[in-house]
Amino acid sequence: MPTRRVPLSVLDLAPRSQGMTPQQALQESTRLAQEVDRLGYHRYWMAEHHGSETFMSSATALLLGHMAHHTDRIRLGAGGVMLPNHSPLMVAEYYGTLATLHGDRFDLGLGRAPGTDPMTAAALARSSGQLQDFASEVAALRDYLGDTPSLPHGRGVVRALPGEGTHVPLWMLGSSTGGAQVAAALGLPFSFASHFAPDQIREALLVYRDRFRADAQTAQVDRPTVMAGVNVLVAPTQEEADHLFTTAQLMAIRIRSGQPGPLDPPVESLADAVPEQLLALAGAHQAVRAVGPPELVAERLEEFAAEHELDELILTTYAYDPELRRRSFRLLAQAWGMTAGG
């Protein structure tokens, strides 16, 4: 049986349950950040989403600044910023300001997806997101955060102030070989979105490891470094865990059927709760998951990390009751042998 235990991190999208206000959802995410900080999880990342009734994480930089004020140790980061939605200079200023205020606690995960619907993406004045354009924007962002500005603009040089010299660590996010190619070419650590798009994980990690360039000017690590996402729900019994996980399955059905909304309470039977033709949409959310009692989930995570030779796992958990989400992370931390406070 595999015994390798890699660091565990947390991905939060500030989900809102039915009957919950946006303010309450953000308060619950703050409580989660404080809990996983206390328990000894490695990172707490938030992902950019726009125009969503489900997720309140549209302004990630603002939220991460708030989390920095309410936590002590845990690394904080964007998992991620959808770079084509923003100017690289502005991203450098935002995250450079966070690093200036709070020190070396921040990671900057970068993705190409819109994180929203096409109409909202247009309202964000989104750029192309094509691989070559994206790679150029990542290189520009790295330059802004470096020691010596070298991006000419007119007769001078554009500088990110604050930001310059902070060297906020960059991560590349991806769910396909496209993101893997960019991560490899730029020498960046790679976070694979296996928690919602697992189909190309083997191919993407092979491309990334085979083409990785430690000598790239933009390189952040000296060897291929991989984190991958897993859906997790831990409860004292398998029966309770499966029951609570129906909230995540209903969320997947809502999103994929174009009926997004706040998280639903768990149900006794998915088949009784949704039309038969929609049941298959719940399956996509289950592809990489660990749901059950603590030791079983820990074993599943160990196996997944060993199978893909991962350096870290990032976990996402959805529960209608925020206290049961926090309990899930508490139970797993104990089973994983985590040391409180790092």
Automatic annotation (TrEMBL):
<dbReference type="InterPro" id="IPR050766">
    <property type="entry name" value="Bact_Lucif_Oxidored"/>
</dbReference>
<dbReference type="GO" id="GO:0005829">
    <property type="term" value="C:cytosol"/>
</dbReference>
<dbReference type="Pfam" id="PF00296">
    <property type="entry name" value="Bac_luciferase"/>
</dbReference>
<feature type="domain" description="Luciferase-like">
    <location>
        <begin position="12"/>
        <end position="305"/>
    </location>
</feature>
<dbReference type="InterPro" id="IPR036661">
    <property type="entry name" value="Luciferase-like_sf"/>
</dbReference>
<dbReference type="GO" id="GO:0016705">
    <property type="term" value="F:oxidoreductase activity, acting on paired donors, with incorporation or reduction of molecular oxygen"/>
</dbReference>
<protein>
    <submittedName>
        <fullName>LLM class flavin-dependent oxidoreductase</fullName>
    </submittedName>
</protein>
<dbReference type="InterPro" id="IPR019949">
    <property type="entry name" value="CmoO-like"/>
</dbReference>
<comment type="similarity">
    <text>To bacterial alkanal monooxygenase alpha and beta chains.</text>
</comment>
<dbReference type="InterPro" id="IPR011251">
    <property type="entry name" value="Luciferase-like_dom"/>
</dbReference>
